[in-house]
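Archive entry. Fields below.
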Amino acid sequence: MAVPARSDTSAARQRARYLEMVEDHRVHSSLYTDPTVFDDEQRAIFDGWVYVAHESEVAEPGDYCLKTIGTQPVVISRDAEGHVHVLMNRCSHLGNLLCHDQKGNSGTFRCPYHGWTFRNTGDLVGVPYKAGYGPDFDRGDFALGRPGRVDSYRGFVFASMSPDVPDLREHLGNAAEAIDRLCELSPEGEIELNRGWLRHRTFSNWKIAFENEVDGYHGNFVHRSLKMVGSWSLLDQADVTNEKSASQVRYLGNGHTDIDWRPQFRKVGHPYLWLGAPEESRLADYAEALAARHGPEGARERLIDGPPHTLIFPNLFIAELFILVIQPIGVGESVQMQTPIQWKGAPTLNKRVMRQTGASIGPAGMVIADDSAMYERNQLGMAAREPQWLQRTRGLHREQTLPDGTEVSNITDDTPHRGFWRHYRSLLTGTNPDGPLKDGDGR
Amino acid sequence: MKLVNEFAAVEVELDNRANGVRLKIVDLTRNSHAVYLDPVHLEALVWADPAELDRLTDPDHILRRLDADGPTDRAEGAR
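PREDICTED_STRUCTURE:
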């Protein structure tokens, strides 16, 4: 028998509440501090498409690794035939956590509590003292749980707890181009995530991290210390976050946001501004391999443009040289999972990426640590209940909508945040998909 | 050589005490219970289908064997 669903009255109350808290140009701070909001988000947002893992993390048959869908633990496994599975990390007997190690290799998962044993496809192999369950016990009734939908795009595996969602490709929409651009910097068209993960816990709401990663306004303040201790080509040579730079913030639709450095990189016209601006000769073998795939002109354009700075709603940040996954823990607690990107067939590039990311996301890194200090200050500041609203009005007078629906504006503007919040509101209210408020929206 | 993951722990070694070489596998979680596999047994494992391996990893099967044999080295006991 199904568990009773939330009543219509309660759904209507929720809808009215989020219409009130999320306005087009400002949002209420209780969205970051109220535990009931966090609970609503788990259903309305994290039960839809979320990024879970990259296929390269389970490269060999029998490989598995642990991930989350929102706050729910899952196991990603590769079976003997090479198929990748996303399984709920919960024994079908009494709900014990089935797998504990962050990664491993095993064709079989055995629960440590009572020994129920599963194949890495999720099928129940057997239970100890089976006769005690009587003659009608059917192993087929007790497979591990699975999300409603699982799909992948160029190795990036996504899952949706709800089966009732559009196809992944439709969900990704204009953001799929960012994944393409990322992969096409590999001479083999593929990336790998195989250098381990840094787990960075912050006492802040997950949305603060999401919004910050596409905030071009803070770079000149929070990351000023980088300029003080040394050179950072993004700021020094490319000056990407200067108010007068040609860089743009973008809202791509479906909650996806982006900072597009390309206009500024092209203006400066130097390859590798995204990589510390090394001498081109140091990466000659990589450039040659890339030219074999894209031709000399195509390769040079890609080396100027670099990898994307794109947030795929609600939890995947493709951050040029690294991947950052935002994991919500509670209303005031998140974990940022970070790993350097490795481009297949590009050993010289990859070596440099390891060094560069050690200075940005590593334990002694100076980028995410500085950002995270701001997240926590943000959360602490919002404990003060007045003034109640966060302002998202920057750039309203100068943003534009392109023919494909992408909204673009100056690097320091709030255009992506306004798009993020409209999408958020549409998911939490189940109305008015991705558009501004109109008459009749219950206000 | 020990092979350990979060679900099982075994020690594997080549055994040359018999007239031909065998692989000795000790279950480290069940006090020295061991099996000796000759090349023909090992070849069979190469070709075992998933259902056959499932039967072997079924905990009910393991417990029944454990209850029948006790935690001993079966080949040692046969000597």
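CURATOR_NOTE: The first strand of chain B starts at residue 2 and ends at 4.
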